[in-house]
Specification:
This protein is mostly helical. The chain has two domains: about 1-40, no CATH class; about 40-73. It contains two helices and two strands; from the N terminus they run ββαα. The chain has a two-stranded antiparallel sheet. Strand 1 (about 10-15) and strand 2 (about 15-20) form a beta hairpin.
């Protein structure tokens, strides 16, 4: 019979080396926290506000670009 050697798999999570088990644990906790945050009402309200601001800025930039192009003709 041959001896079985245990091999520890390591990788990087953020700025530190971790084992596979540590990575799975960290990733699971991270994912849970993201789900908790994205489902909270205050967070969703903030996302809506930011989305509206970005949309308005994009529309303003688009209109400004069109006006500038028309003036250059």
């Amino acid at each position: 019979m041959s001896d079985v050697e245990t091999i520890k798999v390591t990788g990087v999570f953020g700025d530190r080396k971790v084992t596979k088990e540590e990575f799975v644990s960290e990733w699971t906790n991270h994912t849970r926290e993201l789900q908790r945050l994205t489902c909270s009402t205050p967070w969703m309200e903030k996302v809506s506000e930011i989305t509206a601001i970005v949309k308005q800025q994009a529309e303003d930039e688009f209109c400004a670009t069109l006006i500038q192009q028309q003036n250059n003709i």
